[in-house]
Amino acid sequence: MKKIVVVGGGTAGWLAANHLGKKFKGNGEVTVTLIESPDIAPIGVGEGTVPNIRKTLSSFGISETEFIRECDVTFKQSIKFVNWMDKQKHGNDNFFHHLFDAPDKFSEDLTPYWLKHGQANRYADMLSPQHSACEHNKAPKSITTPEYEGMLGYAYHLNAAKFAHLLCKNAVEKFAIEHIKANVTNVELSNTGSIAALNTKELGKLEFDFYLDCTGFESLLSGKALNVPFVDKSKELLVNSALVVQVPTEETDEIPPYTVATAHQAGWIWDIALTNRRGVGFVYSDNHMSDDEAKAKLDHYLKGNSSGLTYRKLPMKVGHREKFWHKNCVSLGLAQGFLEPLEATSILLTDFAASFLADRFPESNEQMILLEQRFNHVMGYAWDRVVDFIKLHYCISDRTDSKFWMDNQKEETIPGSLKARLDLWQQFSPQKEDFFSKFEVFDYDNYLYVLYGMRYKTQLAYLPSSDHDKAKEQAERIKAIAAQLNLQLPNHRELINKIKKYGLQDV
């Protein structure tokens, strides 16, 4: 495997190129090339990330200061879910936070105490001071905190097009990735069914040993050339369309340090604040709402400020390839599959898969069969667990105000693996041992925030009085930490402005 090619740019292609470039840096025998069409624009709406991206960017040698300055970056400490529960029972604009700090970061696990005595309070508010920091629009760090470190856990919101450009620059300059602008017209297969060559409009025939398909929904290599079947997940995840729009903001506007995900009668709306605009997406099921209704609802959400704005419709083919690695080709990003963007799954799965591939890349044809089986097993497990976690948000909701929410609660739409866990968690609160694989992309902490943010009914366990007193003390301590952090941490926009002016400390 001497000649590796990534077909397609965008976030997926350039993440893959950086992972592979880092892997083979200094290895003169291996070349990595990225072929990008000059005529096809990337989707460009994947603007939310999860905390692991900090580790990835740092490993690529990208300065956090440069990243924040170049990509319109803001900090993301949570996803705030609004109206995911019944308004009659929980009030208009009911909400909960899925925080990025673990619920037991500042104390022992207070879940049993909250279940028994704390339900007058929001779960995340009792367990973590980050809830208060989010609600007060605080940054997760100060200007003197070193790059990629924080007083609170965080990820980023970013301009996807600018992010891809920064990754491109890094890959070419640091890892000697060859960047070719060309349109692939067709794919040639060998007599064994593997990919033999790419034919391009501008450069003719190009031959490589190993191919990465980052061609987006088109899936030019895995789907069209290799005919890898698509596994449809639309019976479990019902939303299949999105209207997206960019809304300009003022330099003085507050920047929430979280994604807002507001539920509506047939889906939900993402609202991501960058430094100079908001990225808004109205996600819906067109089996439960017409396109015209969706547009009217998005107009309403934008409070009549939609004049002059351009809506783009994105159809969503929900599911993934049956195999992610076939012969000498691995698919990544949207070519690998797509699930609705709840919980920022697209960049997360791409980064996870690209890192996993680079970590143990085949050196020869003989190694490929074993590594192909391993990769497909792990990625299949990861995708299934992500489907479970996304479905969780819908199926435990107590909303019954529309057919969409009632259909999501039907047993036949809930994966068996999720149903088994929910049955267990009706009797016992989740334990870390319930998440036995390190390939659980979302695990114990994530489930706790969603389950109890949405007030999932778990049978109360016995709580000894000594544990009760200790837990009560710890809950009071978390309140004190929250008050202290609110005084200590800067306003979110204030920190972004300081980073642009002064920069963060190098690690």
TrEMBL record:
Binding, FAD: 9-12, 184, 334, 347
GO molecular function, a single term: nucleotide binding
Alphabetical keyword list: FAD, Flavoprotein, Nucleotide-binding
Keyword Nucleotide-binding included in the entry's annotation: yes
Chain residues that bind L-tryptophan: 343
Pfam families: Trp_halogenase
InterPro entries in the cross-refs: FAD/NAD-bd_sf, Flavin-dep_Halogenase_NPB, Flavin_halogenase, Trp_halogen
Active site: 76
Sites where the protein binds 7-chloro-L-tryptophan: 76
Top-level taxonomic group: Bacteria
Name the UniProt record assigns to this protein: Tryptophan halogenase
Source organism of this protein record: Colwellia psychrerythraea
